[in-house]
Amino acid sequence: MYYVYILKHVNDTYYIGFSSNLKQRIQNHLDGKVGQTKSPRPLKLVYYSAFKDKKKALDFEKYLKTNSGFAFRNKRLV
């Protein structure tokens, strides 16, 4: 399975990511091992979605990082 996830920083900003091992990837974020999410912390997992197809997961992650994806995220996901 492939996962697209959204983390919320303590300052109300979001990080959108992709992983094939969601549990380990989230733990890496929480442990400060991912440069983009080292600060500000703490982080909270607010959304994730599972995909069987890697391309579909990557396409959804890419969409969420667009302007219309931001609007969709704010209205439907978080």
Automatic annotation (TrEMBL):
PROSITE patterns: GIY_YIG (PS50164). It comes from the Bacteria. Residues 1-78 form the GIY-YIG domain. Pfam families: GIY-YIG. Coiled coil: none annotated. InterPro entries: GIY-YIG_endonuc (IPR000305), GIY-YIG_endonuc_sf (IPR035901), UPF0213_domain (IPR050190). PANTHER family: UPF0213 PROTEIN YHBQ (PTHR34477). Belongs to the UPF0213 family. This is GIY-YIG domain-containing protein. It comes from Candidatus Roizmanbacteria bacterium CG_4_9_14_0_2_um_filter_39_13.
